[in-house]
Amino acid sequence: MRATGTSSTELKRGRWAVAAIFLVNGFLVGSWAPQIPVTLDRLQISEFTLGLLILGFGAGALIAMPTAGYLIARHGSTPVLRVLALACSFGLLGVALAPGLASVTLALVAFGALIGGTDVSMNANAVAVERRLGRAIMSSSHGFWSLGGFVGGGLGGFAIVALGHVGHALVVTAIALLATLVATRHLSGEASPEVASGRRFSLPRNPLVYLVGLIALFSMVPEGAVLDWAALYLRQERGADLATAGLAFAGFSGTMALMRFAGDAVRDWLGAVTTLRVSGLVAAAGMMVAAWSSDPALAISAFAVSGLGIANMVPIAFSAAGNQDDISAGAGLSTVTSMGYAGLLVAPSVIGFIGEHTGFAPIFAVLSGLLVLVVVMAGLARKAEFARGGPSHSAA
């Protein structure tokens, strides 16, 4: 139900402000993707060591996520998001300026923590804004994240070639900081922090929440693999140059953004469960072609097709999590997002360890199988059918 006491103009500004933060967060993550092969080369490390560095990035994010949730519960999403988003603008620059392995490790852990904390805060802020607006904005908010990733990944390789890895990071930081300073002035959010929940720190007892979390996990592991390893895969195993290799994540994010902007309409047309099934099949097919294509251009196109399929899978899982019976939307959402982001941020390090010995083509083929499992499990996301008009129940 639309909140009173807050002007429609203020809420609309808040809606676009949080969309801008999603955009910047995706831009920073996408800009990290073309820096990964450079980091491998400049530190003269193996894929195994690079996998450990990426694990540090993910560990930082996963440690920061519950901390951000605790701060949001005490203070609301808006002030927490302001601080974390501004600090996050400097994350990539810290990694680029770090001269050695130890300093890069610390910088990546810090960067991951800022990305993860900002991610939880901006999702919580988007939930608060859509509740007060009385309509869904989650799919399009994630669309802005993907658009940011598309721009960051697509231009990053060319910028590194032209400016060097530090020059690229300086430009990314300046853009991110300016956009964040403007956006954080207009953030809206909860009328007051949701502190009156005796179950705030308890784990949900509903097993369906964890099964929906598996859907999010299986959807986000392929996304993390494309982010962290597609450029290296194209460069080392398919002979692409650095600028071309960076287009893998860019194409993936670009199609993901387009489909996420259309996501609410697609869900209205097909229903959440059918959308999830069709999306999983499309994503699995694209990932399989990318795995076995010897042509970099075809592989990039296949990654783009996979992004088209994965686009709506995570928003549907999040919607299903927020509409489960017998638990609050926040409890369901925090559990599923934590499971999902483990796939995005931690699983790629394991993929790096394996890929050093097997190559990445077989790994992308296995990830296609994970996406098929989502198709099989799609019926578990039926609660997302009710998310467009608001929850079908009143969660305490």
Short description:
This protein is an all-alpha fold and 396 residues long.
> End-to-end span in angstroms?
16 Å
Counting DSSP H or I runs of 4 or more residues, the number of helices is 17
Helix content: over 70%
Q: Order of helices and strands, N to C?
A: HHHHHHHHHHHHHHHHH
Q: Uncertain segments of ≥5 residues (pLDDT<50)? A: 1-5, 196-201, 386-396
How many beta-strand elements? 0
Query: Which structural class do the helices and strands define?
Result: mainly alpha
Radius of gyration: 20 Å
Shape: globular
Strand content: under 5%
Mean pLDDT: 83
What does the main sheet amount to? none
Explain how this protein is built.
Helix 1 (8-32) runs antiparallel to helix 6 (101-133), helix 8 runs antiparallel to helix 10 and helix 11 (263-270) crosses helix 12. With 396 residues, this protein is mainly alpha-helical. The protein contains 17 helices and no strands. It has helices at 8-32, 35-43, 47-75, 77-88, 91-97, 101-133, 138-184, 207-237, 242-245, 247-261, 263-270, 272-292, 296-310, 313-321, 329-345, 347-358, 361-377.
